[in-house]
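Reply to dn_fold:

You asked what the input looked like. This is it:
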Amino acid sequence: MSHGRVEQVSTEAWAGLLSKSPHRTRFLEPEFIALFGAPVTYWGLDRKGVLVAGMPVIDAAVFDARALPWCYYQGIAYHQEIWRASPAKRTQYEIELAEELVTAIAKSQDRFSFSLHPSLQDVRGLDWVHYHDPDRPRLQILPRYTAIVDLDGADSDSLRTACRSARRQEEGYALDREELMSSSDGSIEELTALYLETFARQDLTPPQAERDTLPKYTEYFLNAGVGKLLAVRNRGGQPLAIALIFKDYDGTVHVPIVGTGDTRFGGTLLYFAILDDALANGAKAVDFNGANSPKRAYFKHSIGAKPVLYFDVFYDTGGSN
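and this is what came back:
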């Protein structure tokens, strides 16, 4: 059963769908995506003049990657009326609209990738793309995890009680032994320097396109009035750890970029500062944006963040557009 017509839509039409979607996130805003200078087309499923579902198709080849750096949940968005349907009807819509939308996109795009919002857990519609067409490739659907702290009913003490005792000790060591302090006066230059230092410790260098984009990315959230740079400094004022955080439409604080320098306990102090800042500013949760490598995941969960499943999706015919 067809629910409508799938076609490329204008930036304005995409923004209109987002404004009425429960899956809206700043990662999906067209002006944000434009920062990266990557080719993008927006697709929508039009039902009687209303976009009921849509998604961007972003070519991240300039970053030598499948997805844009420091970006999450850039995928399907549904109209709020779909989400307000009865549970049984909503399940049907979610499956059928996803299959119809992505099947149509695959007719004109040889390869694309996207990431689902954590609230979108039913991926059967995506798994059934080309299910009855053995000559066409299926989608590759990969489980991913992020790390989220729910702040509902929390206070500073309860947040620390929920983490491992070793982390509470490290916070004290950062304050007493290293004599560090946290602040919200970080700069883009400090973030860039510590981000590069984080890679240098692993004998890695971020791609030039990524280095060029980081200041613009950071400025976008700072200029929008929703972002800030939290820093951990030594007694001399030198930054030893820094994080870009921003508050999303749904009240979740995201932590997409972190950089650390020569400090043993400064990273722990920074993460507690993020939680305290989010709590003080009425956030509903903190999403530490990704927990998909052992060291990163174990640390974030030891701070009290719970694992939350989301999905990355890839399509590739092996041809060229």
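The chain has two domains: 5-144+310-316, 153-283.
Hope that clears it up.
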